[in-house]
Specification:
The protein has 5 helices and 17 strands. It has 271 residues and is an alpha/beta fold. The strands form 3 sheets. The chain has a 7-stranded antiparallel β-sheet. The radius of gyration is 18 Å and the shape is globular. 40% of the residues are buried.
């Protein structure tokens, strides 16, 4: 039986908590516990130590890993203030204790033979892709063949663009109001690019309406696609069954984002 204490990193502390504008933050977490491994697409369940309300931890994608002397010493998360839990995180200071459960969940599967890869992100859905891109770069991928399609409501919602450019990528941007990049949905330039150069793999993370469109595009063009589901999780380890996702291949069956995901093959689920 799964023992959650095996994934509980005792003594985690805030290393930094930097505003990124418009309610977004980057938080670095130093962890005293031993971190055996972590993979792009996995997530952490967090709450401030001593926090009485809200009671439950909140899930956050691993945005980057903090490495010192070739060992993983901690994590960075990218988050947006959307409720009481994230508002409390935004007020955390360097040295504050954090209760961390993780890393958890199923990661993205990367195939070394793939030459053309499209990552599709909506808003805070960009969070897992910096870690993914960094791992691909270290693995020897030609990053000119790895494209990020990043969409947001406004220019303020387009995060980490410079970080991806540093990795040798040229993000394709879209905003609802046209304040940066192409005006409209990010799935429009995605479809245009697919018609010109179909990718070997697509990865997507963002709001459910965006994921539905990306999954439909992948099905129409018969392209492999992995999607990371953003959903509310109460426990993060399959006990509460609150993050159910309908199984496409089994009638009346469900899978759970925390243990079966959060990354799924697009053809496996119904959103």
């Amino acid at each position: 039986m799964y023992n959650p204490t095996e994934k509980c990193l005792q003594g985690a502390q805030v290393l930094w908590n930097r505003p990124q504008g418009s309610g977004y933050y980057r938080m670095g977490l130093g962890c005293a516990g031993k971190i055996e491994s972590v993979h792009p697409g996995q997530f952490l369940m967090l709450r401030l130590e001593g926090q009485q309300s809200p009671l439950l931890r909140r899930p956050f994608s691993v945005h980057q890993v903090i490495v010192d002397q070739h060992r993983i010493r901690g994590f960075e998360i990218l988050y947006k203030v959307v409720g009481d839990g994230t508002a409390l995180l935004a007020g955390a200071k360097k040295g504050d204790g954090i209760d961390v459960l993780g890393p958890l969940g199923k990661s993205f599967v990367v195939h070394p033979g793939h030459k053309t890869v499209y990552c599709v992100a909506g808003g805070i859905g960009v969070a897992p892709f910096l870690f993914l891109a960094a791992r691909m770069s270290v693995a020897g991928f030609d990053m000119s063949g790895v494209s990020l399609f990043l969409g947001g409501r406004t220019a303020n919602d387009l995060l980490c663009v410079e970080d991806f450019e540093t990795l040798g990528m040229s993000p394709i941007l879209a905003t609802d109001d046209g304040s940066r990049g192409q005006r409209g949905l990010v799935t429009a330039p995605l479809e245009e690019a697919i018609r010109t150069s179909p990718p070997d793999m697509m990865y997507a993370c963002g709001p459910l309406p965006m994921l539905r469109v990306v999954m439909a595009i992948a099905a129409h063009h018969d392209l492999p696609c992995q999607v990371s589901i953003e959903t509310i999780m109460a426990c993060g380890m399959g006990a509460c069954l609150g993050c159910a996702v309908k199984d496409k291949k089994r009638h009346a069956a469900y899978r759970h984002a925390c243990v079966d995901g959060p990354v799924f093959d697009a053809e496996e689920i119904v959103l």
